[in-house]
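Dear support,

We are seeing what looks like truncated structure output for some complexes. This example has two components. We would appreciate it if you could run it in full and send us the complete C-alpha cell output so we can diff it against ours.
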Amino acid sequence: MATIADIGVAAALNLISAFIFLIAFALLRIQPFNDRVYFPKWYLKGLRDSPTHAGAFVKKFVNVDFRSYVKFLNWMPAALKMPEPELIEHAGLDSAVYLRIYLIGLKIFVPITFFAWAVLVPVNYTNDTLELQKLLNVTSSDIDRLSISNIPDKSQRFWAHIVMAYAFTYWTCYVLLKEYAKVADMRLQFLASAKRRPDQFTVLVRNVPPDPDESVSELVEHFFLVNHPDHYLTHQVVVNANKLAKLVKQKKKKQNWLDYYQLKYSRNNAKRPIMKTGFLGLWGQKVDAIDYHISEIERLSKEIAAERESVVTDPKAIMPAAFVSFKTRWGAAVCAQTQQTRNPTLWLTDWAPEPRDVYWNNLAIPYVSLAVRKLIMGVAFFFLTFFFMIPIALVQSLASIVGIEKAAPFLKPIIEVKFIKSVIQGFLPGIALKLFLIFLPTILMIMSKFEGFVSLSSLERRSASRYYLFILVNVFLGSIITGSAFEQLDSFMNQSANDIPKTIGVAIPIKATFFITYIMVDGWAGIAGEILMLKPLIFYHLKNFLLVKTEKDREEAMDAGSLSFNTGEPRIQLYFLLGLVYATVTPFLLPFILVFFGFAYVVFRHQIINVYNQEYESGAAFWPDVHKRVIVALIISQLLLMGLLSTKGAAQSTPFLIALPVLTIWFYFFSKGRYESAFVRNPLQEAMMKDTLERAREPNLNLKGYLQNAYVHPVFKSDDEDDDDYDMAFGKKEDDVLVPTKRQSRRNTPVPSKISGGSSPSLPETVQEHHEP
Amino acid sequence: MATIADIGVAAALNLISAFIFLIAFALLRIQPFNDRVYFPKWYLKGLRDSPTHAGAFVKKFVNVDFRSYVKFLNWMPAALKMPEPELIEHAGLDSAVYLRIYLIGLKIFVPITFFAWAVLVPVNYTNDTLELQKLLNVTSSDIDRLSISNIPDKSQRFWAHIVMAYAFTYWTCYVLLKEYAKVADMRLQFLASAKRRPDQFTVLVRNVPPDPDESVSELVEHFFLVNHPDHYLTHQVVVNANKLAKLVKQKKKKQNWLDYYQLKYSRNNAKRPIMKTGFLGLWGQKVDAIDYHISEIERLSKEIAAERESVVTDPKAIMPAAFVSFKTRWGAAVCAQTQQTRNPTLWLTDWAPEPRDVYWNNLAIPYVSLAVRKLIMGVAFFFLTFFFMIPIALVQSLASIVGIEKAAPFLKPIIEVKFIKSVIQGFLPGIALKLFLIFLPTILMIMSKFEGFVSLSSLERRSASRYYLFILVNVFLGSIITGSAFEQLDSFMNQSANDIPKTIGVAIPIKATFFITYIMVDGWAGIAGEILMLKPLIFYHLKNFLLVKTEKDREEAMDAGSLSFNTGEPRIQLYFLLGLVYATVTPFLLPFILVFFGFAYVVFRHQIINVYNQEYESGAAFWPDVHKRVIVALIISQLLLMGLLSTKGAAQSTPFLIALPVLTIWFYFFSKGRYESAFVRNPLQEAMMKDTLERAREPNLNLKGYLQNAYVHPVFKSDDEDDDDYDMAFGKKEDDVLVPTKRQSRRNTPVPSKISGGSSPSLPETVQEHHEP
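Here is the complete output from our reference environment:
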C-alpha cells in the first residue's frame, strides 16, 4: 500500500522527468536546424522559410543568442496567447474544438476538486475506521484515510457523499450543456463563414441504381434535372482510380530510388551503381541501377497513361456514386436532408465531406453489403475486446523457450546461450502484448474502413468509439477487477444486475493509488514526450542527412503529424472517467487529473499552432461523441457509487442515488435533441442568407467553373505527374481554397484584421523570435 | 394438470359458444331494424338509406325472406370477397393494413405449425421421460408428452429444437421483411394516390419564436417568404379555441335538452315542462324548462360570438404554431424534412397530419416542456407497470367489510345485511382490479396526451407501445412467474443475466395449458363478442326508442366505433408472443393461435367493411411499431428457449442458439434502415411526379382557395352553428375531400373503376342482399 509520501516521491520524480523533457524541448526548439521539426505547420502554410538562407554559417545550425535560452518556458504563454477565432483560422475548427475537450476537463474538475477537498476530505478524515482496522492488522495507507473507506459502515456521513454526487452531476451536466451550445454555435458559424467552399454546394449521392439505357453520369444528370430542376448545377461521377493511384505511387517510389542512385553516382563518378532486381535487392539479376530505374519509370509512365485513359472511358471503372453540385447552398442543403425516391436505399444523398476528407475507396458499397459488414465488424469487435488475450497467449507460449525449441529445433543451440535465453524469457512475451496494443488503433481503423464509411472524419470517429470501449473494458475494468476481459464477462453474466456495481464499486477505493500512478506515467510523462517529438526529430535529421537534396525534399522530410482523434480522444475520456468515478470516493486523485488537463491543454495548444497539419476539416463533427462519452463516464460513476454505498450498509441513503442515472440519461436525450442536429443537418435559413449575400456581392460569379473540379479524384488533380502525391495535392493546392489562414491574407493587406485585434502582434514572437535577435 | 381431453372439452365449449354468438349475429344482422347497428359505415358514407322508407310495415322491422336465414354464414365469404384496393378506398389504408397484422399471423404460423407438428411432436412424443417420472409420482399431462418436457436431460434430440428455432426465426423474419416491403409500398402508393389532399401541401410549424415587432402570422409569412421564396403559398395560424369549443359543446347540449322538452310539450300540450336549475336538476329554482333553455342558448350564442371574435383578434389566443402550405408537394416535402434555423428547437417543421388527425390542444408546447413531460411520463409509466398493485390493494382493503365500516361507520347497519355483505365480499375487491384494467387504456391515452403528441395517430401509437409493455410484464411474465410485477422486478435485479431466462424458461412448458385456455376465452370468445356488437345494439335501440325524432337523430344514434389501435394491436401482439415462445416448446398450442388469427381476420374484415368508421387516416404509420414488436417477441422466445435448454443439461447444443438473437437484432436494424423511412420521410421524386402531372392536367387550379381553410380549427368550420360537433365536422364535411370512396364515384359513373376490375360486382351482394330479394 502506497502512502502519501510514496505518491509524493513518485509525483516528484514524474514532475522532474517532465521538467527535463521541457528543458530539452526548450533547448532543441530554438536551434535553427530543428526549425522544421518544431514549426512544420508554418512551413507547410508557406509562411516561414528555412533559416539557412541567410546569416553566418554557425547561426544556420545553432542559436547563439543566449538571451533566448533564458526565456526557455516562453513558448507556454505564447501558445496561450493566440485568441480562439485566430486559432480556428490558423488550424481549423477541428483542432480548436479538440482543445476545448481539455478545457472542459478543467471547467468540470476545478470546482469539483475544490468542493471534494473542502467537504468530502474533512468528512472522510475525521473518522478512525481505518485506525481501528489497523489494530486488527488490516493494511491501509494514508490515502485511504482521505477516502470513503475511512467512514464506518451505516454512518450518516454518507449523506455528504450523496449530496456531493448530486452536485457533481449537476455541475458536469451544466458544463456539458453550455459547451455543447458553444461548440454547436462555433460549428454553424464556421460552416457559414464568409468563405465559399465547394462542400457547401455539393451533395454526395450514392447507390445510383443501374440503368441499361443510360450511363451513370447521364442518369445522375437526368434525375437531378427532373427532381431539383431549379437548383441542379453540375455533377462529378466517382471513378474507381485505386489501381491508377497505386501505379502513381509506385512510380514515385522508383523516382526516389533513381534520385538516390543518381546522387550516389554524381558523388562517385568512377563506378555506376549496381543493384539486384530481386526481393529487397538481396538477390536476382545484377543490373545498372540508374538504367534500370529509368526504364522502369518509363514503363510505369506508359502504364499510368493507359490506365488513366481506361479509367475515364471504361464503364466498369465508373462507380454508382457522384458528387452533385447545386446552384445555391439552399439547394444543396435541401437535397442533403431529403429522401429522393421511394426506395430509401437508392439515391442516398448526404452532405459531401470536404474534398480532403473523402475516403474514396468506400464510395461504391451498396446498402445490403454495408449492413452485413456492420454485423461482421460488430461481432469481430466483440471478440477483439473480450478474447484478444487468447491469440496473444498463444504467441506468448510460442515465444517461450520451450515453444521455440519445439517449433524450430535447429535453433536450440543458439537459444540455450544464457544471454539470449534471458532476453527471450524477459522480453518476448511482453513484446507480443505491446505490439498488439500499438497496432490496436490501426486494427480498429481497418475495421472501420471495412465497415464502409465515406469520410476520414467518420472513420476516425468510429475507431475512437471502439477504442474507448476497448479502454473501458480492458484498462479501466481490467485494472479494477483482475482477470482477462472474458473472465470478467463470464462472471458478470453470472452475477445479478444488483451485484455487478457492488463488485466493481468495492474495488474502486483500493485501486486509487494504481490509477494515480497511471495518470502520472501515462498522462504527465506522455504529454511531455509528445511535445519533445523525439521520433519526428530523429527521422527528420536522418532523412536530412541521407536523402535531402533540394528544398522540396526537405519539405517532404518534415513529418508534421496531426491530432489523431481516433487514439487521442478515447485516452482523454479515460481521465474524465477516472475523475468522475473518484470524485466522491477518493478526492485525493483529483489534483492529478487537474494537472493532466492543464498541462495537456498548453502542450496541445502549442502543437496545434506550430506542428500539427490536419489532414481534413470536419467542422467539429466529433463533438456529439465527446459529449456522449463524458455522460457515459458520469453514469458509470453513479452506478459504482451506488454499488459501493450499498456494500457499506448505507441502505437508508442509497435509494436516493437511483434518480441520478435516470436524470442523467434524460439529460443526455435532452441535450441530444437540443443540439445534435447542428452536427448532422444544415439549417436552411443560414444557407439562404449566405446565398442572398453572395448574389448581392458577386452577381457574375462563375460557380460552375469553381465547382467543376472540386471533387475530382486526387490522382487526376495535378498536371505535373511527379507531384501527385496525396498529401501534396491536398495540402497545397486546396489549402488556399479550404482553410484560408489570416497569415496569407496579411501578406496582401498589411493592416491587422479585425478579429484578432490588439492581440495579433503576439504571434510574430513565436514565429520570428530567432530571426530578429 | 389438464389432459388433452380436458382441453378438448374446453375447446368444444368455447367453439359452441362462439357458434351461438355467430348464429345470433346472423339472425340479428338481417333484420332491417338492426340495419344501422350492423351496417353503420354505409350509412355514414351516405350509400345506404333506411330500409324503413319503402315496403310493407312488417318488412320494415323483420326480415321475412326465409331464404336469407339459410345462408346465415354468408357474411363470411362476403367479407373476404372485397379486394384489397377496394377495401383501401372504402375504409382507408389504416384499416386495410391493420387486417394484414392478422394475415401475417397466419402467414407466420401456418408453416410453423405444420413443421412443429411434423418434426417436433414426433421427436418429443417418442420418449418416455414423463412416463418414468410418473412412476416417481411426478404429475404431468398428455400435453406435456407432446412438449419439450418429455425429452430427457442431455439428449441429442435437442438438436431438433435448435434447428427448428433457426428455421422458425428465418421464416418469421422472411415474412416480416416481405410484409414491411409490401406495406411501405402500399403507403407510398396511398400517399401518392391520384387525389389531391391538403396535407400533401402542408407542413406543421411549431415553436415559432416570439417577436416583439411582428405578430405570429406576419412572422411566419416573412420567414417562409424569405427561406422558401419559390414555394411558400399561404399559412393558417393555430389559435387556442379550446374555450370556444367548450362553449359550442355546452350550447349543443342545451339545444338537445330544448329539443327534448319541446318534444315532451308537443306530446302533452296540457303542461309546460318544469325543471330545476341546480345540480343534475335535483334542486334549485323551478323554472319553465323550454323558456330556460331558450334563454340559455341565447346567452351561449352571444358568448360564443364574443369568444369567436376575441379568439381571432386577441394576440394571446394565437399560438406559436401554424400550418404552412406550399405551392407544390415538392416544396412541402422539402420543408417538412429540413431544419430551418440554427436552433433546432425553433421553427420545428413536420409533415402536417391529416386535418381529422390533428390533436389541437398540444400544438403549442415548447421543446423544454416536451422533454420534461417525457421524463415525468416515463417515470410514471414505470411505477404504473410495476407498482399498480399497491393502490389497488389499498382500494381492495378499503372495499372490504371492515374497511368500509371503519371509513363510514353510519353504513354499518346496511352492510351487515347478509346479501349486501356477500356482494361486497365477493365482488368489490375484484371490481377494483377490473375497473383499473378497463380504464388502463384511457389512463395510457391521457399520459400520451400529456406527453404532447400532436396527432391522434401518434397518441394511439404511443399508448399502444405502453399497453404492450404492460401486457408483456403483467400478463405474460405475470402469468408465468407468480407474484406481483414489483416482486418479479426485485427478483430479476437479484438474479444474474444468465439466470433470468432460465427461471422463466423453465416455467414456460408448465404454463402451456393456462395459455391455451387464455387464448380460447380471451381470443376466440372475445372476437365472437366483437362481431355481435351487443353494447352498440342495445344502446342504439334504447336511443331509437327514447330520443330519435328525425333521420338526423337516427344518424347520431348510430355508434359505429372504430378499430382502436391502442388496445387492439397490443393484444394481437400477445398472441404473436405466445405463438413464437411455444412454437419450439409446446407445439400443441399452435393450432389454437391459428384459429384465433383466422377467425379474427374474417371478423375484423367484416367489421371494417360494414361497421367501423375510422376517425382519422394515418397512412399505416403504425407499421414500424408492429414490425418491431413481433421482433421483440421473437427475441424473447429465443432467450427463453436458451434458458430452458440450458437447464435441460444441453450444454453442448445451447451455445448454437446465441447467434440467433444477434442475427435477429441485426435483422431489425437492417429492415428498419431499409423501410422505415417510408413511414417517416417523403420522397421528393414522388412529390415532383405528382406536381408535374397536376400542372399538366389542371394548369389553372386555384390551390390557394383549396388550401385556405383546410387547417382551420374544427370549431370555425361549420356555418351552421348547431352542427359544429367535432365528429360531425370531421366525419361529414371532410370525408369527400379526404378519403373518397369508390361508391361515391360510382354514383356518377356507372361503369366499374379499373382497380377493382372483375371482382367489384361481388360487393353489392353485401350491401344490397336484403334489398333485392
